[in-house]
Amino acid sequence: MFSAVRESLQTETRPDSLKANLLSGLTVGVIALPLSMALAIAVGVPPQHGLYTAIFAGLVIALTGGSRVNISGPTAAFVVVLLPIVHAWGIGGLLVSGFMAGVILVLMGMLRLGRFVEIVPYPVTIGFTSGIGVVIATFQITDFLGLTPGESGGHYLEKLSAIVLALPTLNWQETLTGVVTLATLVFWSKLRSRIPGHLVALLVGSLLAMLLGYLLDDFSVATIGSRFHYEINGVTGSGIPPLLPAFEWPWNLPDANGEPVGMSFGLVSMLLASAITIAMLGALESLLCAVVADGMSGYKHNPDDELIGQGIGNMIVPLFGGIPATAAIARTAANIRAGATSPLSSAIHGLFIVASILFLSPLLAWIPMASMAALLLMVAWNMSEVKHFIRIVRIAPRDDVATLLICFSLTVVFDMTIAVAVGVGLASMLFIRRSIQLVESKRHESALYQDLPREIVVYNMDGPLFFGSAQQAIKGIADIMPEVRAIILDMTDVTMLDITAIIAMEGITKKLADNNVRLVICHLQPRMIQKLQRAGIGVNNGPIVFVNTADEAVDRARELVADATV
Q1: Residues 47 and 189 in one domain
Q2: I want to staple 408 with a disulfide (CB 3.0 to 4.6 A). Which of 16, 127, 490, 550 is the partner?
Q3: What is the pLDDT of residues 34-67, one digit of tens each?
Q4: Which of 430, 456, 477 marks a domain boundary?
């Protein structure tokens, strides 16, 4: 734990470094402020919960994690996972799920699974992110166009149908505000200005709505202040409460029916699948972000420490009203480009949002919902990876294309819980299949085994022998000519031997012994010989012999053939 902080304290103590991290933290804070609110709204909770997430995730994960420059907070990747939880369990169920996911992430880090999370196949990752982008974009159409959809179920196709049926209710004021905001975002991104486009676009959208509302009597758009309300000590307010969150156990918060969620084994078991999905997606997103950050910054993250930091952050964030968090690639990239070199920048970004809640809440209430929808549409487009998606379809092998389309379809049509489970399964199957293709046993052509009698054959075995490859690699050895009395098996390039391979070796040894054929194994690593001998293979002068060199193997095979002839 704390590897990023320890490394930074050893190297980043110069005044110019402190100044650079201060400025980069302020820059990222400006970017994170509107995004955090927008992502909370997309999840189905009031915008302040996104701000609380950015504050505590930005502080805790940066200080306890393994990346010096990652910026953590609410991310678009979680929207598809969290939205169904909110509908079914309310804010209380959402925060309990996040707390459980934090526990799982800590366990993953302690078990040193970080390096394995980083190697998820590219088609699986793009399938997830593209699917999430499509879902986020679809769900923003309602606010972007000012639609009034009817009741719909929780599934994507049902929501899409409700949106299509609601198109006649299009509100031109909301649409104009959304289009102008989106156009500003697109235009500003081409200017390559140091001023964040999110801030400029929301400012333009808000000023437009205020100006037209002043000039036109019938002009009215929904804003954060008109959509969301809060109550403090019996006093009701609009928009975002100008106070920091108080500590509250997440299971004391309301469910979808307004009653406290409570805490029970039944609740934990019902939320476990969602918590695992949040943890897996959070681990994947944070470690991919750390890899990208390493390439941009030149630093090296610690994947296991990063998982532990993400876990601790997600256990603390729900205690203060925050939704699940992970590292955000776009905010991290902006952080690095702004000059960040240590976790201090993430802490400053969190403190900036604290100041914004305390002093800017009345102004934030004027932001139109259509402008927030436009901001999320841009996030969805950047997340969809359209160019990479099309390129994989065009040039990738059929297995990879099928994996991409399956992960994408499951993410859109069903939900991320199913998509993550199937995606991880497909990734494992692809790995096993391609590992099997690398393993083979074939007749040896080396000059070390020349001029042998026909009673002796030599096989070479390459690659790891595990449950997926053992049978294929060993079955060819059993198909031998009747005159063969000894087989030399060169296992120089065998790097692994699991219990399936041991059982397969046991079977082939018995089959050869029944046919009066002996097996001589050479160049097998000592630790693997010990595994076989513990299983009773190659002990007590059995039908298998272990030797160290090719010359020893040839001599021993000739002796065995001579004994069999006698």
Answers
A1: yes
A2: 127
A3: 999 999 998 989 999 999 999 999 999 999 988 8
A4: 430
